Amino acid sequence: MKKNKHGANLFELAEKYHFNVKDIRDFSSNINPFGASKKALDYVKEHLENVSIYPDSEYIKLKQAISSYSKADTAHIILGEGATGLISKFIQFVNPKHSMVMIPAYSEYKSELNKIEGNTIFSYSLKKENCFQGDTSELIKKTNEKQADILILCNPNNPTGSIFSQDDISYLMEHTSCYVMIDETYIEFTDKNKYSSAPLTTKYKKLFVVRGTSKFFSTPGIRLGYGLCSDEKVLDFFKSHTDLWNINIIATMMGEKMFTDTDYIAETYQKICTERNYLITELSSFEQLKVYPSYGNFILCEIISDKFDADYLYDKLIPDALAIRNCASFETLDKKFFRICTLLPEDNQKLIHSLKNILAQ
Amino acid sequence: MKKNKHGANLFELAEKYHFNVKDIRDFSSNINPFGASKKALDYVKEHLENVSIYPDSEYIKLKQAISSYSKADTAHIILGEGATGLISKFIQFVNPKHSMVMIPAYSEYKSELNKIEGNTIFSYSLKKENCFQGDTSELIKKTNEKQADILILCNPNNPTGSIFSQDDISYLMEHTSCYVMIDETYIEFTDKNKYSSAPLTTKYKKLFVVRGTSKFFSTPGIRLGYGLCSDEKVLDFFKSHTDLWNINIIATMMGEKMFTDTDYIAETYQKICTERNYLITELSSFEQLKVYPSYGNFILCEIISDKFDADYLYDKLIPDALAIRNCASFETLDKKFFRICTLLPEDNQKLIHSLKNILAQ
């Protein structure tokens, strides 16, 4: 059931509830619902015959596009088939004896850490009484105490939506000596200038920033992620552990165009912010729910009524073709928590409408 | 310079000789020049918005298409990002102490075998006096003598064009106990019914057949390969060593259509046979060349004149925007050998015309 950890499997749901896959509004997958860059899609359409050539094995143009987008040196860019493979390989590189992860978090960090023999995994728990906001000093203390070789953060964090600023991360890098991996899958849904650690990678060699393109750029189908790091040892490791032409030519062409489509990027950000604000406002009006602040394109909610839990809500929403994400599988969360992402305005309105009906019962 | 092992880097050549990349006729890459399945390309174009969804994590439809194409059980199909990654992982699975490869061959086999610590690699050398045709009994004897844990064959073999029949492989499987990996990258350019070992994978658990889609289906850009094997241990190993969603949605959509496009498959085969026959006939007419028989879409030639070598020929052909593959880097071959693949009729005619001019000098 691996796939369920990454959000509902639409194919299974469709079969179970006799829906067409396209009719289900998937509030669990965190993908930008406004779609991919039209410029990029048009470019791919016009050059689809390029499936018959090998990609440039150096990916020069793609790296240039990522470089201008993420303000990182092209030499510090590592390309991967999605973010998860990069996370896995970086952990292999560090080969830790002691690791530190923040929880609740994306379950793949621990899965990957568990593959390292003799590795002890410690957890830094985000407290709901602090709205899941981490305390940098406390995190540093615990990381150093446990002699962690690697610290893994998701920023903003999935599923809590909490965030560390760039200044927090600088402070962290100055006061720890371990490798720090920051998963910035959701960074584009917030103010990158204030929160992204990408610009710090040049200064701090032990910092590894990883990003995917599935969520913000709405392209999970193309399997494209990238890592940013200035450590020669890390760069060499990835070079020698990566297949030639690991990035397919569609991802290459999409990337070359979408990372430089500044209008699309600005509009997507604005639209998601508007929808997030709408959802937070509406959800907060339900007395049965506590809504946690979020810097991602998703919102963590806690059911504070004794009368029902997230499973109940899930089952009640599915007949309306609305799929939310139950969060009981996240460490430290329980059946009272669920997560929803921002979809299209009409979908968000439909969800709020359905919730009103259900919660009024 | 890794890329040069896999054929000329067109980008570098274009810069050096002031050509547009598209103007160079690349006789070194072995890609079917008639292009990808139009049905598949049209389907991808119509459904390009699918970049915004995750592929089905079980790849059910893609596996069904491969199954009907390769006559293998869907449960025995392993998907990979190109053939090379599958080759690498299968070698990791076997983790051999002793290995046997046929030479001359694709250099990646030895590169991957060399990554296994403590592995001794033995070679079975194809003799030019036998037109590089392998002797099954001799190969069995040597494999058993060396106690090989794995035997790697390419069938038909690159760069020699020689081949083993399905009956030869059955005989081999009956008389060896090691894992046998057969790289069938070029099998579709010949009579699959007689030469492919795919149907044998059900009977022989230690047989692993690997295929790519870059060459025959003219889709190196989509990064799609597959392995066929009925051994549960092998299947489990790949399951636990493969990232979720390793095949991107463009490759998925292309595969679903192109493997079932029987008209395209039959036409491609016919056209390549016609061009191969033309080239073999024309090349054989040069008294300076010995042309080896080929079951692939490429032809190995030996310069039997003392007056020049393949480097000379390469340099003379580049100004005509024709790139051949010098074969000195293949073990047991030398500067007298070159390989060309079948391109479009006009390209093949141009090559023969240029060769006539050069060899008449």
Automatic annotation (TrEMBL), chains A, B:
Domain of life assignment: Bacteria
Short name of one Pfam family: Aminotran_1_2
InterPro entries named in the record: Aminotransferase_I/II_large, PyrdxlP-dep_Trfase, PyrdxlP-dep_Trfase_major, PyrdxlP-dep_Trfase_small
Gene3D superfamilies: Aspartate Aminotransferase, domain 1, Type I PLP-dependent aspartate aminotransferase-like (Major domain)
Residues annotated as domain Aminotransferase class I/classII large: 23-355
A molecular function (GO) term: pyridoxal phosphate binding
Keyword Nucleus found: no
Cofactor or coenzyme needed: pyridoxal 5'-phosphate
Keywords, comma-separated and alphabetical: Pyridoxal phosphate
Name the record gives this protein: Histidinol-phosphate transaminase
The organism's taxonomic lineage, starting at the top: Bacteria, Bacillati, Bacillota, Clostridia, Peptostreptococcales
